[in-house]
Each structure stands twice: as C-alpha cells, then as structure tokens.
C-alpha cells in the first residue's frame, strides 16, 4: 500500500468504529490535531459533533491555525466517517493571560462509553504562547501545565472512566505533565505528538502507556527530553515542516517508522541542551525576558508575522541590543557567544565522528 497522510487514513479507515479497529497512534495524533479547532465558535453554534459541521464552520473554525488547508481537509474527511463523525465533545476550556504568560486550551472527546480523549492545544502563533513555551526551560511548572493537570483531575471526577491524554507540540508536553502529576489508574494512554520533554523521565508506572511520536528531523520534540523512549515517524516534509503531522506518512493503520532521528536533529538537540545546561535559571529567565521585550516592543504580534518579516525582526533586535546599557549589551554578547561556542564544538565532534566512521570503512593500506 502507498504511503498516505492522516487525512488519507481517515478516508481509508473511516468506516470502522473503534470497537472494530482499536484506537491507535494515528487516532491519537488526529485527535491531538483537532485541539487547534476553534471550539468556542462551534459551541456558540451549538455544534458538538463533527458530523454537524457545515463548510462555512469548517473554514471559520480553522482560519487562524498554522495549517488551515490541512485542518479543513481533516475535518471534511472526519465528519463523513463513522469513526470520527459521531464523536462528541464537551468541557471546552480556554485561558489567555498575558500577565501570567499563559495560553491554555483543552477539549474532551467521548470515543466510547466511559472512554474519553482529552486533547490539549499546542503552541499557536501568539507571542504569549511562545513565551510560555520558552519559560519551560527554567520554571518548575508553567501555568498551562498546572491548568492541564487541574483540567484532567476535574474532568475525571466529573465523568469517571478511562482517559487518553494527548496533544501536539506544547499540547503533548501538557498531556505528559498532567499524567505524571495525577493518579494514573484512569489513564489508558498518553500521547505527545512532537512535544518537548519534561526535563525528567516519566514515572515508571506510566511509561508503558506513554506514546511519544517525533519525525526524523525533530527539533521541538527533542527539547528538554532526557529519554530516548520515542517512536520516530517518517515524514515527507523538510526541516521544521516535519513538525506538522500532515507531513507524517501512514501505512495501513499505523505510521511508517524509522530507526532514529537524523544527524542534524541529534546535532541540534546536543547543541541546545549543552547551551541550556551552561546557564542557571535566573540567566535563562533574564535572557528570554529581554528577547521577548525587544520582539514585542512595537506591540503584540503573531510569530507567523515575525517569520514573514524575519530580516526586519533581526534588525529590530540588533537595534534594541545596541540601544541598551553596556552591562546588558555585554550580557547578550556573552550568552549568544556561548551558543556559538557550543555549536562550533558540537560541529567538530560531528565531523570527527564522520571522519572516524569513514576511516574504519576505508582503512589506510
């Protein structure tokens, strides 16, 4: 069978209920992706099943997501399928608090009697969302991690049963955090779809139910990740585009997997991990606060806008650094210089490893 996408998977397997074909990693990824849909809009329209969606609502509920076309195609396929079309959702929660540097959202799907999937939304394009992500590097718990735990605990008391927790990107981190800080008897499985790690291993009793999926060129999914207990999925995307699950390849009812992540991904993880390990938490916080203060100096923006205007963004940051006092400027140069040193060191290690590898294959005569 040819390689397919998660949308193709729905089209090819949508006639099977979860009782006919058990819940799998592709299903977990699809429901994690659905967390990006604007459920506040759908709730206002009294829509609580995918089958009830209209073309207009599909368009409006996905227009502000990272990949509107992919999300619209997924919703169109899902609403026509027996597997996903009749899924009900409830208890949509959303909290955006710039002062707390928090952006949190979650939704609960009922996939069978007494069996639920809580989907935590991943990172959106807003500065406050990205700032909360970076705060994970120095904080014991960011506000959305605590909110994710509270949401699951409250939901499991309200609707006792079995639960899957999952999310893409930041949402995967929230799912793992909530599972690690809750009673685990009710948790049937937990999914992190290329989400950053928790800086420490999951509790042993959760590890057999944990499913972490990353693409071969993963960067985000390997951040703050001390473990290697993840599944590497083949993607037809390039570079950072592999973070998008719509580029992941499906065969039959499972993802196509490969042995390990790319050397570039390993290099990036080693460089960033070493750089972060060389800074104390206070330094990380001060550096990140100053970065985001410069980026948002001209008002709240979306990261998608900054990405389109990256030359201007870099010029703005450089001008902001130049305008600071001598002590702050030296601090910036010191930290960025450390990153340059780490990257250079890791590059030398990689080149030596490559040289030794080929030297063993072609020894001198």
**Number of DSSP helices?**
15
Could you describe the largest sheet, including whether it forms a barrel? 8 strands, mixed
The dominant shape is globular
Over all CA atoms, what is the radius of gyration?
22 Å
**Mean pLDDT, rounded to whole units?**
85
Distance between the amino and carboxyl termini: 47 Å
Low-confidence stretches: none
Relative strand content: 15-25%
> How many strand units?
10
CATH topology of the largest domain: Rossmann fold
The strands making up the biggest β-sheet line up spatially as 1-2-3-4-5-6-7-10
Output the helix-strand order.
HHHHHHEEEHHEHEHEEEEEHHHHH
Q: What is the annotated CATH architecture of the largest domain?
A: 3-Layer(aba) Sandwich
Instruction: Provide the CATH top-level class of the largest domain.
Output: Alpha Beta
**What structural class is derived from the secondary structure elements?**
alpha/beta
Q: Helical residue percent?
A: 40-55%
Q: Please, how many domains?
A: 2
Pfam families: Mbeg1-like (PF11187)
Protein name: DUF2974 domain-containing protein
InterPro entries: AB_hydrolase_fold, Mbeg1-like
Organism: Lactobacillus selangorensis
Task: Report on the architecture of this protein.
It comes from Lactobacillus selangorensis. The chain has 365 residues and is an alpha/beta fold. The protein folds into two domains: 256 residues, Rossmann fold; 83 residues, no CATH class. Helix 1 runs parallel beside helix 5.
